[in-house]
Amino acid sequence: VVAGSTVELGCGTQGDPVPRVQWHKEHGDLPWGRHEVDQEHTLRLYTVTPADAGTYVCTAQNQLGTAAATEKKRG
C-alpha cells in the first residue's frame, strides 16, 4: 500500500436474520476521521500512513451467532 492512498477492505456477509457488521483494528483504533464503512460493509481507509498497518477484523453478528474474518495490511 502506498502512503497517502485509499485502501478498501471487503467483508462479504450473509445470514438470516441479516447480521450486523462491525470493523475494528486488532491492535489500536481505526484511523479517526479517515475511514468509512459503506452499505456493502466495505471499509475504506483514506490517506493511509505507516501507522495504519496492521490486522483489521470484520465481525458479523446476529441472533444465531458471530463470525469474524481478518485482513492484514502492511504499510
From TrEMBL:
Keyword annotations of the record: Cell membrane, Disulfide bond, Glycoprotein, Immunoglobulin domain, Membrane, Repeat
Pfam families given in the database record: I-set (PF07679)
Keyword flag Methyltransferase: no
MF terms in GO: cell-cell adhesion mediator activity
GO annotation terms (biological process): axon guidance; dendrite self-avoidance; homophilic cell adhesion via plasma membrane adhesion molecules
Domain Ig-like stretches: 1-75
SUPFAM superfamilies the UniProt entry points to: Immunoglobulin (SSF48726)
Name of the protein in question: ROBO1 protein
Gene Ontology CC terms, in alphabetical order: axon; plasma membrane
Superkingdom: Eukaryota
Principal place of residence: membrane
Protein's cellular compartments: Cell membrane
Keyword hit for Membrane: yes
